[in-house]
Amino acid sequence: MSGPSRFRWHGFWRRTQAMLIKEFIQLKRDRVSFVMIVMVPLIQLLLFGYAINTTPRNMPTAVLLQEQTDIGRTILKAMENTQYFKVTRVVITEDEFDQLLKSGDVLFGIEIPAGFERAVRRGDKPAMLVVADATDPVAAGSALTALNQVAQIALQNERGLPMPGGPLFEFRTHARYNPAANTALNIVPGLIGTILTMTMLIFTALSVTREIERGTMESLLAMPITPFEIMLGKIIPYILVGFLQAAIIVAIGILLFGVPIFGSLLLLAALSTLFITANLAIGYTFSTIAQNQLQAMQMSIMFFLPNILLSGFMFPFAGMPKWAQYIGECLPLTHYMRIVRAIMLKGAVLSDLRYDTLALFALMLVAMAIAIKRFRRTLD
Amino acid sequence: MNADAETVIDVEGLTKSFDGRVVVRDLSMKVKRGTICGFLGPNGSGKTTTIRMLCGLLTPDSGHGTTLGFDILTQADEIKRQVGYMTQKFSLYQDLTVRENLELVARIYGVDNPRKAAQDMVQRLGLHGREDQLAGELSGGWKQRLALGACTLPNPKLLLLDEPTAGVDPKARRDFWNEIHAMAADGLTVLVSTHYMDEAERCHEIAYIAYGELLAHGTVDEVIDASKLKTYTVTGDNLTELSGKLMGKPGVDMVAPFGTSLHVSGRDHAALDTTIRPYREDAALHWHESEPSLEDVFIELMSRAKDNFQKEPAPQKETTL
């Protein structure tokens, strides 16, 4: 299989470079891919950054007002000030109230019962009924939390109320690292990882199968170039591409979404490069296994889905069952997700990220080893 | 050792099958340095597979041998450095320009100053003015020239050309052969597969392969003599009718029309003469004994191989890549 080591290493960089130049030229000519490199991160980030919001605003709310009082008005005003709620309807009968919720015209219904103000002034801690359309529990959850706090504050400022220290509801929340519960802070760093996973996988997953399908692999194999050199030549250009994408996403994240970078930008760049390379190596491995470009695409998607769902990007990692966590640990995105969130939002340094860095490195090496082993040096 | 240096291709008993179908069976051949060896045979006869085994792109199931003195089983890397292989289908990068393709090859082979080497080759191929054109936009003839240029650029010692002139116009074909002969004169060895009889006759020697077996090998004259074929050329009226009557008769191995005449050939000379005797007396037909053409020999070889090969002719994986 392998020639003497003299041949192996003599001219190694020269041949790798030959491959590299070729890949760059092809990339430059491939207008669609070139546009994709810039547009994919741009569009996805803008789309998801603005669209995905687990703390939604201005949710339509109905109020069932059974008495007209100052306290009632104060509470409604304070609720609207949170921007979570927008009182779109004020009704006086329960039938109307129920109908609005049932039809989905409003997501929340707030009932201020008759005798509410009197009960409050007497210190009876009356109940204020809040009905939430919980078909979207995420949307309902954060709004309810906000409502509770706001209602208390509003009443505390009201004159002439007994302050027995007994609030209406007892909820204590503390959103660390993201006190405003700003979803963009969570989404943007995660998007760096998912966008890079997707584009990197696809670029290299097609690289070998494309050569086989176009027939150029026969020429390439007939030339004295080793599988390792071919692999490096095909991966290195896309490291730069991935780097460019990461830069675009981070820049937009900072400029448009106000995502802070508490940690070192250099460390973020270095570990992003590692993550990019790991994904390229995995994509390349797929392309050495797949028989054609379609199969390579299917394999990439098969790999991409668990990356999104099990990495902690969409759902909390700690909330998954053990077996799912084990799978998650084998995915580069899981580790990168921790790295990028830790660097950007918590200001973590390399020693904090030892484990995830080593895991990424190991995944990259395993993928490369499989790719080299699987690369067919002959047409057999 | 001296004789070895002169023998560029020396393989024995090469056998290769795909999915249980034997594509090349027990093939042995030797080609000497500086020789242009024509590799002939019908479609799917195993030519491409043989060529790929010779340059290390396919591993034979059994058999052994050397190319340029390097073992085809274990020294594929060394072989690749000194062999230029031109694939049947254009396999350079269509989205790279002429110059970029040549520079890529030059760099991979470690040619000094790849830029200059590519430029020199552009001049030699007569491609100047087209060096910045994408390879995919070249016409068939120019693609073929580019492919030849790419595989000769690293100055290989052996060229393996797989149907290099398929679909190329006669002028380009002639230029191509002149080029090949010039290079062979400098000591380059060439194994070239082809379907064209006129090209076969331009080779120093020919090898004929059908259904995976090497059936004839030698100079054109040697192959014709070895066939022991006696051929009559018949001219006259109703040749189609005559062809139908003679086909399959004792001693008649092959009947084939050639323009306005008919070639009737057989290996058993006595039986052939007996069979055609009644027709020779037909005044409307003019018979004369002629030297069998290479094509007569090949068609006869092929039909004989088919008879031996009782099974369905093995369809081939030749062009699946």
Structural class of the helices, strands and pairings of chain B?
A: alpha/beta
- Major β-sheet annotation of chain B: 6 strands, mixed
Strand tally of chain B is: 14
**Overall tally of domains of chain B:** 2
Number of domains of chain A: 2
The CATH architecture classification of the largest domain in chain B is: 3-Layer(aba) Sandwich
Query: In DSSP terms, counting alpha (H) and pi (I) runs of 4 or more, how many helices of chain B?
Result: 12
Query: What pattern of helices and strands is seen along the backbone of chain B?
Result: HEEEHEEHEHHHEHEHEEHEHEEHEH
User: Going across the major beta sheet of chain B, what is the strand order?
Assistant: 6-7-8-3-9-10
Mean pLDDT of chain A: 82
Overview of the structural elements:
The complex is a heterodimer of chains A (380) and B (321). Chain A has 380 residues and is an alpha/beta fold. Chain A has two domains: 5-52 and 183-374, no CATH class; 59-156, 3-Layer(aba) Sandwich (abc type-2 transporter like fold), CATH 3.40.1710. The relative contact order of chain A is 0.11. Chain A has a four-stranded mixed beta sheet with strand order 2-1-3-4, sandwiched between helices. Chain A is built from 16 helices and four strands. Chain A is elongated, with a radius of gyration of 28 Å. In chain A, α11 (227-255) packs across α12 (265-289), α12 (265-289) crosses α13 (293-310) and α15 packs antiparallel against α16 (354-374). The two termini of chain A are 13 Å apart. Helix content of chain A is 65%, strand content 6%. Mean pLDDT of chain A is 82; it is low at 1-5 and 168-176. With 321 residues, chain B is α/β, with parallel strands linked by helices. Chain B folds into two domains: 2-223, P-loop containing nucleotide triphosphate hydrolases (Rossmann fold), CATH 3.40.50.300; 228-291, Lrp/AsnC effector binding domain/regulation of amino acid metabolism (RAM) domain (Alpha-Beta Plaits). Chain B has twelve helices and 14 strands. In chain B, β7, α7 and β8 (189-194) form a beta-alpha-beta unit. The longest helix of chain B is centred in the middle third of the chain and has 16 residues, at 170-185. Mean pLDDT of chain B is 88; it is low at 312-321. Classes of the chains: A alpha/beta (380), B alpha/beta (321). The A-B interface holds A 1-3, 7, 11, 14-15, 17-19, 21-22, 25-26, 29-30, 212, 214-219, 221-226, 377-380 and B 52, 55-59, 74-78, 80-81, 83, 85, 87, 89-96, 100, 103-105, 107-110, 114, 134, 150, 321.
